[in-house]
């Protein structure tokens, strides 16, 4: 059965941990979907992982729709959430609703995610009023990397920790169905989780959150440009891919691939007439 906002509400209510992974293409989404994950995020991290940018700033609405629609075709059971890219919702509430609508209509998302707390509360309210589920994202918000001055843990002093709690309360009040907490000290994330009725999804925020999310290429060992402390490599797919490529090259050069079982036959009589 297709997972939805109800899955998230029930997860919080029953204390069942929620699981999310990113995906950016049909085949990976289909594979991840078959494992029973609750939701797939088409993150704007696709800028780093798929497009080779150094940050998420350059990612466009067209990028998100193109990759989002591919993921939506592969995800039969997991809820699909598509990130709103930089400047698709910060310019006005009107722009935000229009762009969130495009991610639903053209990207076939089941919900959208956007970054920010108190300052985007009115935007979240308007998108939710249009019938679009919103996942919020606070703590380290990569689209604001130039304001933060780098990828740093957030909420470490009293003022910043109080601001994080205010942000969490504001996005809940605005109607978000869940909130991502990125790069936040574990004890603070656990406290925020206990204060909220909506589930918290942690990434670099410890085990006290209601669920977890990771970038699939990080946890599979496929992306090595930058690996944050919170990433655990659950597999070494990158090395397996390199080994497979090397074996392919060796076999092609040795003439052992393709073998008979990989080729198509033709009657010798037909071939004979061609000489
Ligand atoms: O873009 C992304 O992949 C994200 C997750 C890391 C939460 O926002």
What is this structure's SSE topology?
Blueprint: H1 5-14, E1 18-22, H2 26-33, E2 39-42, H3 46-49, H4 61-74, E3 79-83, H5 93-105, E4 111-115, H6 121-129, E5 134-139, H7 145-148, H8 158-174, E6 178-182, H9 186-195, E7 200-203, E8 211-214, H10 216-219, H11 237-254, H12 268-274
Parallel strand pairs: 1-2, 1-8, 2-3, 3-4, 4-5, 5-6, 6-7, 7-8
Descriptive notes:
With 275 residues, the chain is of the alpha/beta class. 43% of the residues lie in helices and 14% in strands. The protein contains twelve helices and eight strands. Strands 1-2-3-4-5-6-7-8 form an eight-stranded parallel barrel, surrounded by seven helices. Strand 6, helix 9 and strand 7 form a beta-alpha-beta unit. It is elongated and about 80 Å long. The N and C termini lie far apart (59 Å). It binds 3-methyl-2-oxobutanoic acid. The site of 3-methyl-2-oxobutanoic acid has 12 residues, from strand 6.
The gross shape turns out to be elongated
**Tally of helical segments:** 12
Helix content: 40-55%
Distance between the termini: 59 Å
Give short descriptive properties of this protein:
single chain; 275 residues; eight-stranded parallel barrel; 12 helices; binds 3-methyl-2-oxobutanoic acid
Short recap of the structure:
This protein is α/β, with parallel strands linked by helices and 275 residues long.
């Amino acid at each position: 059965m297709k997972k939805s906002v109800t899955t998230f509400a029930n997860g919080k209510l029953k204390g069942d941990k929620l699981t999310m992974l990113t995906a950016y293409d049909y085949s990976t989404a289909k594979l991840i979907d078959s494992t029973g994950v609750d939701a797939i995020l088409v993150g704007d991290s696709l800028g780093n992982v798929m497009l080779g940018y150094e940050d998420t700033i350059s990612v466009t609405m067209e990028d998100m729709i193109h990759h989002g629609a591919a993921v939506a075709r592969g995800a039969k059971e997991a809820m699909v959430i598509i990130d709103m890219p930089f400047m698709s919702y910060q310019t006005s509430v009107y722009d935000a609703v229009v762009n969130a609508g495009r991610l639903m209509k053209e990207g076939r998302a089941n919900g959208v995610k956007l970054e920010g707390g108190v300052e985007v509360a009115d935007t979240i309210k308007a998108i939710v009023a249009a019938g679009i589920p919103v996942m919020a994202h606070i703590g380290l918000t990569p689209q604001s990397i130039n304001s933060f001055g780098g990828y740093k843990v957030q909420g470490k002093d009293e003022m910043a920790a109080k601001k994080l709690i205010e942000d969490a309360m504001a996005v809940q009040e605005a109607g978000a169905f869940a909130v991502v907490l990125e790069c936040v000290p574990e004890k603070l994330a656990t406290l925020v989780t206990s204060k909220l009725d909506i589930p918290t999804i942690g990434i670099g925020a410890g085990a006290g959150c209601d669920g977890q999310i990771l970038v699939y290429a990080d946890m599979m060992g496929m992306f090595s440009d930058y690996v944050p402390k919170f990433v655990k490599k659950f597999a070494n797919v990158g090395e397996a891919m390199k080994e497979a490529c090397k074996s392919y090259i060796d076999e092609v050069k040795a003439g052992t691939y393709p073998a008979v079982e990989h080729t198509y036959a033709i009657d010798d009589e037909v071939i004979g007439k061609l000489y």
